[in-house]
Write a structure and sequence with these properties.
The chain is an alpha+beta fold and 260 residues long. The protein contains twelve helices and four strands. Helix 1 runs parallel beside helix 5 (94-111). The chain is elongated. The mean pLDDT is 76. The protein binds a DNA duplex (20 and 20 nucleotides) through residues 2, 4-8, 23-24, 26-27, 53, 57, 59-63, 93-95, 119-125, 140-141, 144, 175, 177-179, 202-204. Keywords: Plasmid.
Length: 260
DNA sequence: ATATAGGGTGGTGTCTACCG
DNA sequence: CGGTAGACACCACCCTATAT
């Protein structure tokens, strides 16, 4: 579920952002960046800059997932706690964090440009069960994206024998149409090339294996556990950043009480 | 088994009205 | 002024049917 949220950015930020990241990758990369990479500035003067309002601004909406918004709110809280320490009455908001995020992500992709995402459709025969499980864990429209990320970031190749890989289930197969990027396709081809030609391992075999591994991963993933891990991660980040021993103890106590 | 074609749709960016 | 909400057009992507 994505929510449309507007942000007040510095004038020109959007133009730069759009320049470094090609269309149709923008919000996708932004969401990933916020969840997995972005960290609050460690440098005090830069942190203080989060309380400044831009001289010239522009309003721009992004469609973000609840997960991303939650992360943003946590960051806002953190910065505001810091603001209190400075005896400042000023508060920060999602927008000021977003301005900093935009700076960082523009910086990142200026250094490591991304090319346009070329993709192709790949109809794959899967069992009804596989299809239903995917739909159970993933929003219909995100199956391709989740699978693609999984392949590029985690998938290391089949962990089963060639026979097992090529074994056809007795039940009738259904077609699952996925669209994955050329990068992901290339990666899968590389895996195929590691097999002997006479094994006749095809793209579909590897894709089905990747789907199986993804399903296994999703089944083991307990949403509550994941949320807890995320919170723990944020708490640790907070501890690392600007805390004295007393504050560490206080934070830990807060963490424990929140647990109940 | 896999690739492609064509049509529908919902995510996306943009604009505008509005709220506190 | 900072932010939200809704309407809307576009087109990337998804799905189904069909071809290779």
């Amino acid at each position: 579920m994505k929510i449309l949220v507007s942000f007040v950015l510095r004038k020109g930020q959007i133009e730069r952002f759009n320049k470094v990241i090609p269309e149709h990758l923008r919000t996708r990369l932004l969401r990933k960046f916020i969840l997995n990479e972005y960290e609050l500035p460690k440098d005090e003067s830069e942190l203080v800059s989060l309380f400044l309002e831009p001289e010239e601004s522009e309003v721009y909406p992004f469609r973000l997932s609840e997960e991303v918004l939650e992360r943003l709110d946590i960051l806002v809280d953190k910065v505001n706690n810091y603001g209190e320490k400075l005896a400042s009455q000023k508060t920060t908001n999602r927008s000021s964090i977003m301005r900093n995020i935009m700076d960082r992500i523009i910086e990142k992709y200026e250094k490591n440009p991304v090319s346009e995402r070329k993709w192709k459709m790949k109809p794959v025969h899967v069992t009804k069960e596989q299809k239903e499980l995917l739909q159970k864990y993933i929003d219909q429209r995100e199956i391709s994206a989740v699978l693609e990320d999984f392949i590029l970031e985690e998938y290391k190749g089949p962990s089963v024998s060639v026979q097992e890989l090529k074994r056809r289930p007795k039940e009738k197969m259904e077609i699952l149409v996925i669209t994955i990027s050329d990068d992901a396709t290339e990666y899968l081809k590389k895996i195929i090339s590691q097999y002997r030609a006479e094994d006749k391992v095809k793209m579909a075999h590897i894709l089905r294996d990747a789907i199986n591994q993804l399903i296994k991963k999703l089944e083991n993933e307990n949403p509550q556990k994941k949320a807890l891990e995320l919170r723990l991660k944020h708490t640790i980040e907070e501890l690392m950043q600007y805390s004295t021993i007393e504050e560490v103890q206080e934070l830990l106590e807060n963490y424990n009480t929140k647990e109940e």
